[in-house]
Design brief:
Layout (H helix, E strand, L loop, with lengths): L5 E3 L14 E6 L10 E6 L4 E6 L7 H10 L6 E8 L5 H19 L6 E8 L6 H14 L8 H7 L8 E7 L2 E8 L12 E9 L2 H13 L16 E12 L2 H21 L7 E9 L2 H12 L2 H8 L5 H9 L16 E4 L2 E4 L8 H8 L6 E7 L5 E8 L3 H8 L4
Helix pairs in contact: 2-3, 5-6, 7-9
């Protein structure tokens, strides 16, 4: 137990996690990819409160535009996700197709169209294969309630594009449960949240409190995530609370939501396209949290730092380069080399370069065990603020994945 809520690993035990009370889900193949499920729907069978955040990209797709309007009512009950096709830069036709999918989900679930969120992720610039999608929803409608038997890992798997594994997380607060699913391993740098992530809970939470909890959770999790510095046109994060388990302590719920989102953040970073290592960068001694995060992201996003991590090369010169190149923000004018320290793991490498007795520890820090992480720590010596950000190394596989993505 921690903070009044329980942290539960989804890998514990042979059974997959279950949805919170009075949620159900459907997955199936709608012709978006060659094989496998590529459409998912999660729905609450009772009225709900909700909160959501979306990409700030000027090229936000029709799914984001439509969902942003629906989310304003803070009463969403259903989420549909189309994988492998972002339906972005597709003009009026793309908007019409997104609206049609929402209408078909509303008919399938009995939820008003204005209470349906739609996510669409994948290749940009291609129309949706609407004939196949229509056929899929016709078949699902014919099955009725039998179409809704998917578990959280099924939905997370149906959402995947270049992900290598589904991402789910579970937390409990009193009688209530929170279940999160997420996808996204490339085109991943937040400008609100990042990627697609949905959290469903049977807690009863007022809409204002839910919105505040989500924004606070995003600020310490998805906002601290980057794989390749590129902000997607389709980023969406949402939470839906249907109240079936009754009210819970609001601070405990907020803490559980933040912990769940951080869990998903780490999973997304670890599965970054071509990633072989999770990379965590901590900056302390900053003037304020914004500076700490800005400098940490500068280190995290440096291709030279990322490739050094991939090669297990403790090249601290690249780290100080990434710190020193921050010259535009007025706060960063206070940065002085004589105040800065840099470490890999628990080994300080600047200004005190490690000697022979510490080289073995340094090698261990750069070659973590399977599913381990490489930690880079920077202190600025300016103030009390700190931030930790999450990403991954940069490998030749990242180039291959993205060079061949549409071919």
């Amino acid at each position: 137990m921690m903070h009044g809520y329980e942290s539960v690993s989804v890998d514990e035990g042979p059974e997959p996690p279950e949805w919170p009370r009075e949620f159900r889900a459907h997955t199936g193949h709608g012709g978006l990819r060659e094989r496998g499920d590529d459409i998912s729907v999660v729905v609450s069978d009772r009225p709900s409160t909700s909160a959501a955040m979306f990409t700030k990209s000027h090229f936000a797709g029709p799914a984001v535009v439509l969902s942003r309007a629906n989310a304003a009512g803070r009463a969403m009950r259903a989420v549909v996700t189309l994988a492998q096709n972002a339906n972005v830069a597709t003009g009026r036709q793309g908007a019409e197709h997104a609206a049609e999918v929402v209408g078909r989900v509303a008919a399938l679930t009995g939820v008003p169209q204005g209470e349906v969120l739609i996510g669409s992720t994948g290749v940009i610039g291609r129309p949706l294969p609407m004939a196949d999608i229509r056929a899929h929803f016709d078949e699902a409608a014919a099955l009725g309630t039998a179409a809704f038997g998917a578990a959280p890992p099924d939905v997370a798997r149906a959402m995947m594009t270049t992900d290598t594994r589904p991402k789910t997380a579970v937390r409990t607060v009193g009688r209530a449960r929170l279940v999160g699913v997420a996808k996204g391993v490339g085109m991943l740098e937040p400008n609100m949240a990042t990627m697609l992530a949905y959290v469903l809970t049977d807690a009863a939470v007022p809409a204002d409190a839910l919105d505040a909890a989500l924004r606070a959770a995003v600020d310490t999790s998805f906002h601290c995530l980057s794989v390749d510095t590129d902000t997607s046109t389709s980023d969406t994060v949402a939470v839906i609370a249907n109240g079936a388990a009754g009210p819970v302590d609001t601070p405990e719920l907020a803490a559980a939501l933040a912990d769940l989102c951080l869990d998903l953040t780490r999973q997304l970073a670890r599965d970054g396209e071509g990633a072989t290592k999770l990379l965590r960068v901590t900056v302390g001694g900053a003037l304020n949290p914004a500076q700490a995060r800005r400098i940490a992201k500068s280190v995290l996003n440096s291709p030279l730092v990322k490739t050094a991590v991939h090669g297990a090369d403790p090249n601290w010169g690249r780290v100080v380069m990434a710190v020193g190149k921050n010259t535009e923000h007025p706060d960063d004018a206070a940065i002085r080399p004589g105040l800065v320290t840099v470490g890999f793991g628990d080994v300080e490498v600047y200004p005190r370069e490690p000697g022979p007795d510490t080289l073995a520890r340094l090698a261990d820090a750069m070659r973590p065990p399977e599913d381990g992480s490489v930690d880079i720590t920077v202190t600025l010596g300016l103030g009390p603020a700190a931030a930790m950000v999450y990403g991954c190394d940069l490998s030749a596989e990242y180039v291959r994945v993205n060079a061949d993505y549409t071919t």
